[in-house]
Design goal:
Blueprint: E1 9-11, E2 29-31, H1 34-38, H2 41-54, H3 58-62, H4 64-68, E3 76-78, H5 91-98, H6 104-128, H7 140-165, H8 189-203, H9 221-236, E4 239-240, E5 249-250, E6 261-263, H10 266-286, H11 295-304, E7 314-318, E8 335-337, E9 353-355, H12 357-362, H13 369-373, E10 374-375, E11 377-380, E12 386-389, E13 397-399, H14 404-407, H15 411-419, E14 432-436, H16 437-451, H17 470-480, H18 485-499, H19 501-513, H20 519-525, H21 529-543, E15 555-558, H22 584-587, E16 592-595, H23 602-611, H24 630-634
Parallel strand pairs: 8-11
Antiparallel strand pairs: 1-2, 3-9, 4-6, 5-6, 7-14, 9-13, 10-13, 11-12, 15-16
Helix pairs in contact: 2-6, 2-7, 6-7, 7-8, 8-9, 9-10, 10-16, 16-17, 16-19, 17-18, 17-19, 18-19
């Protein structure tokens, strides 16, 4: 791979810690030497803004990382199955694990991610050589904070590159004009993660906690703690390897003969879990972050772009800008099919990310996250302006966490979509969340239950730094989703009794975080990706066509709301008969019906189901990593190559 020497371009403009669009306003560049830039605090802030701005590109975090990179899992799928799923030159095939080095997006993603890393390296090196860093200088504290932000962003980027490609070139110095450090070989991912952990431990003391003066649109201390913990757990987890590593444990299941799935030795694993526990406990004990009262309240705030400043649920959210960046709500979300009077001429949601019927049915019907997450309806004007059920599309459920109907509460966004024509893609400006508090609690429950003595309520924490048990952490996440708290506790206790505490964490991870680009990478480090995909496929086959034996209904019935405040006919979601087959007399009480997931459809069972994640174990077992692009390899001066059975 070729790193191109980059001259620093800066924008002269206002700096704000709260306005996401500031990171995007980079249209008035001027060239300055590093000495001039980093001996001035104002220009240093602008240089750091350039790093944040790089995160808003489509091939970094505006579109690819939050929507595409986390596919496929047991509950999240890329759109387009059947023959689409084997198309190695399109994201539809590549995220079904049928990638090829010739896929054009690979080089663009690689270059974009490393471009942002280069900008972060410039900031770190510039501050290290700045006169403002001298002891006693009035700007020293601020400069250390800017450096810590840049190093944390760099760590985030490298973790995501490792998740995508495995071993990658590791470069933390600026590129030289003579190209002496432009061509680099791969570095073992464990070495990279060890370096990132050290960087974060050095950076954390220089970062502020989230609050009114440092919003979650900037790197905060809480996020640095959580990122370090996430890296430590990844370091301790399972990975497909280019070659077997001596002293590492090879998985008994789901491991390739030539490219084994391994994890580190037990001593290192425990050390990493203890490190994660320390940093997760610090977040919890700080009381600087908390769960929003309900999932509905949280997702409403995200859809309208409302930043929480008092004990926010988010630890870090990448700032986007309306009509500038951000495809959450547009490329993924509740579907508005074509022109509507409420939301303009374009419509939204190509549905790149879809959810599955077994996932929908895994929820307790009283879990409020079910209908927030799984959008089984869409809005269109085709048959009159109305909401309609999707019908028997078991692998095509939209992710409703992002929703035009909620986004309309943001007047700026609404004005933009109403003013657009049928060809206009209006970027939502919805921030991309890189970590929120439920994930902290779930990681904490995992490490504490692993490290400490189990009892009937999770763990015994006598003498430990944190005052809550693993069970309490898991219960917080689960109970929030229910109106009836006692019922929620009873359901969780039954799940633990039936499947064990760890499996309850795995399931809660899906219920809480589906669609958010988290689950795939957790399943990988648990070595559960292939197993869980197989389980979801078996569950579907067991429930379809078996309504008489307790399977899913072949048809569902529903009514419309009688006193809807909407302009369109709105389905009463509480009326849908998801869980039972109706007699002919019972059917008369309903206004509408639709073929449902339980009806046999041979295209779904014989073609689509088989195509889902079809390349994960062919020709190499557990090959979830992407190849390096052929063009990247050809310009690397022989330093880079593909593994895992991919050609160069």
């Amino acid at each position: 791979m070729k790193f191109i020497y980059r001259t620093l371009f800066l924008t002269i403009g206002l700096i704000s810690s709260t306005a996401c669009s500031d990171f995007l306003d980079q249209d008035s560049p001027s060239e300055m030497s590093d000495k001039v830039v980093f001996d001035n605090e104002y220009y240093t802030q602008l240089a750091l803004n350039k790093v944040y701005g790089g995160l808003t590109q489509d091939k970094t975090y505006s579109q690819f990382m939050p929507i595409v990179a986390g596919l496929n899992t047991d509950c999240e799928l890329i759109d387009g199955l059947g023959s689409n799923a084997t198309n190695s030159g399109h994201q539809r095939g590549c995220m079904n694990y049928n990638a090829a080095p010739g896929w054009g997006d690979l080089a663009t993603i690689w270059d974009a991610m490393y471009g942002v890393i280069e900008d972060a390296n410039l900031v770190v090196a510039g501050i290290d050589n700045s006169s403002l860093l001298a002891e006693g200088n009035e700007y020293r504290e601020n400069m250390l904070r800017y450096k810590a932000e840049a190093k944390t962003l760099r760590a985030m980027l490298y973790l995501d590159l490792i998740r995508l490609f495995g071993d990658v070139p590791f470069k933390v110095e600026t590129s030289q004009s003579d190209l002496s450090n432009a061509y680099l070989e791969k570095t073992d991912r464990d070495e990279i993660m060890d370096n990132l952990i050290n960087d974060l431990e050095e950076s954390i003391p220089n970062l502020p906690w989230a609050g009114s003066e440092q919003t979650t649109e900037h790197i905060t201390r809480g996020y640095a703690h959580a990122l370090l913990a996430n890296i430590a757990l990844t370091r301790a987890g399972w990975f497909i390897r280019e070659t077997a590593k001596e002293g590492y444990k090879t998985a008994e299941e789901n491991s390739d003969e030539n490219y084994p799935t391994q994890r580190c030795d037990e001593e290192t694993r425990v050390k990493m879990y203890e490190l994660a526990e320390k940093h997760l406990s610090t977040i919890i004990n700080s009381n600087k972050h908390a769960l929003t009262a309900t999932p509905a309240e949280y997702w409403l705030a995200m859809n309208i772009g409302e930043l929480q400043t008092n004990t926010p649920e988010n630890l870090f959210e990448i700032p986007m800008g309306i009509n500038k960046s951000g495809e959450l709500g547009y490329t993924v979300g509740f579907r508005v099919s074509g022109p509507t009077p409420d939301y303009g001429k374009k419509g939204n949601s190509t549905g790149t990310l879809k959810l599955t019927a077994p996932f929908f049915y895994s929820f307790d019907p009283q879990d409020t996250r079910r209908d927030l997450t799984c959008a089984n309806t869409q809005l269109q004007t085709k048959n009159g302006y109305a909401e309609e059920l999707l019908g028997n599309k078991p692998f095509e459920i939209y992710c409703g966490k992002w929703d035009y109907r909620k986004m309309a509460g943001n007047a700026t966004w609404l004005a933009a979509v109403l003013a657009g024509d049928e060809k206009a893609k209006i970027c939502s400006g919805i921030n991309v969340v890189k970590m929120r508090y439920p994930q902290v609690l779930l990681m904490y429950a995992e490490v504490v239950s692993d490290l400490h003595t189990q009892n009937s309520y999770g763990t015994d924490l006598s003498g430990k730094a944190c005052t809550i048990s693993a069970y309490d952490a898991l219960l917080q996440v689960h109970q929030r989703a229910f109106t009836n708290q006692a019922q929620a506790k009873q359901q969780l206790d039954q799940l633990i009794a039936d499947k064990g505490f760890f499996e309850a964490i795995v399931q809660e991870n899906a219920w809480e975080l589906a669609g958010e680009g988290v689950r795939k990478f957790e399943l990988i480090r648990w070595n559960l990706l292939s197993k869980k995909i197989d389980e979801f496929k078996k569950e579907y086959l067991a429930k379809v066509g078996t309504a008489a034996e307790g399977g899913w209904p072949e048809k569902v019935y529903f009514n419309y709301k009688k006193n809807s405040t909407k302009q369109y006919k709105e389905i009463d979601m509480t009326s849908i008969t998801w869980d039972r087959t109706l007699s002919k007399d019972e059917q008369k009480a309903y206004e509408g019906n639709k073929d449902a997931f339980g009806k046999v459809n041979t295209t779904q069972t014989e073609t689509n189901l088989k195509s889902i994640s079809s390349g994960l174990n062919t020709p190499v077992c557990n090959r979830y990593l992407l190849p390096i692009a052929s063009t990247t390899i050809s310009t690397s001066n022989g330093k880079l190559h593909n593994s895992y059975g991919y050609s160069n």
